[in-house]
């Protein structure tokens, strides 16, 4: 235990459980960052022209440029990890379940069924209609049910009827709700500040856990492999994707002396 009972102001989740949950999320993210070889780095062919623009407009050196490209490649997977973070925390909150199929979060005791989305504009019209109809179906099967579309990043704090247009007709029902994550945590835990407390604790818990996890950076390994292609970092970057293109076997950057102070060419 890192903090005393008096310091830990989230009675709805045990300190050990919160640390475990944050650690699992971090480990999943680190595993996706394991792009430590040139082969993995170039698996889907990097775009050297885009990287050139990135390097110049953001004044990046080669290590930072490689690191930024790695982060771009894994960003989608990491976004999924954040979605799992918001969903799976309910494994640890009494009365709530995270089923393997169907709704994202459930409370069978209170007949509450939840679809969780990270951002208010995540779903297109077709997806919204499908989700709404699934909720209507649940209400028909369980007259005590209440269904929630919970948005982590909503336009504002809210707990309102979810209004949807189906086949040209407007629908809304007081048992199909559209709720921001703060309002949902209040419902789930009885603490109106529960989500704020999670956000307040998250940075310090991540810092503590991150100090225990060693994650080798991949940038230097990839740069070493690029150096085997050419003495010039930029030459190597272009040859990754354009090696078979006309003229690239003798690639030369014009007025190279004028580029000597550019981080990418150091």
TrEMBL record:
It holds the Pfam family RE_Eco47II. It comes from the Bacteria. One of its GO terms (molecular function) is DNA binding. One of its GO terms (biological process) is DNA restriction-modification system. Keywords: Endonuclease, Hydrolase, Nuclease. InterPro entries: Restrct_endonuc_II_Eco47II. This is Restriction endonuclease, type II, Eco47II.
């Amino acid at each position: 235990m890192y903090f005393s009972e008096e310091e830990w102001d989230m009675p709805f989740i045990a300190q050990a459980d919160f640390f475990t949950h944050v650690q699992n999320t971090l480990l999943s993210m680190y595993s996706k960052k394991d792009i430590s070889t040139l082969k993995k780095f170039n698996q889907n062919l990097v775009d050297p022209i885009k990287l050139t623009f990135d390097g110049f407009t953001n004044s990046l050196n080669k290590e930072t440029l490689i690191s930024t490209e790695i982060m771009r490649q894994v960003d989608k997977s990491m976004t999924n990890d954040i979605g799992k973070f918001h969903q799976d925390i309910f494994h640890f909150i009494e009365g709530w379940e995270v089923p393997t199929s169907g709704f994202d979060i459930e409370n069978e005791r209170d007949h509450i069924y939840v679809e969780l989305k990270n951002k208010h504009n995540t779903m297109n019209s077709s997806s919204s209609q499908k989700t709404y109809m699934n909720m209507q179906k649940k209400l028909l099967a369980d007259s005590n049910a209440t269904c929630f579309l919970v948005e982590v990043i909503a336009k504002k704090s809210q707990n309102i009827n979810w209004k949807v247009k189906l086949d040209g007709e407007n629908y809304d029902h007081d048992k199909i709700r559209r709720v921001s994550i703060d309002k949902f945590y209040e419902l789930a835990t009885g603490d109106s500040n529960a989500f704020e407390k999670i956000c307040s604790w998250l940075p310090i818990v991540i810092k503590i856990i991150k100090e225990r996890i060693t994650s080798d950076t991949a940038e230097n390994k990839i740069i070493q492999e690029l150096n085997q292609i050419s003495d010039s970092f930029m030459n190597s970057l272009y040859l990754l994707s354009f090696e078979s293109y006309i003229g690239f076997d003798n690639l030369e950057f014009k007025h190279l002396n004028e580029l000597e102070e550019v981080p990418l060419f150091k």
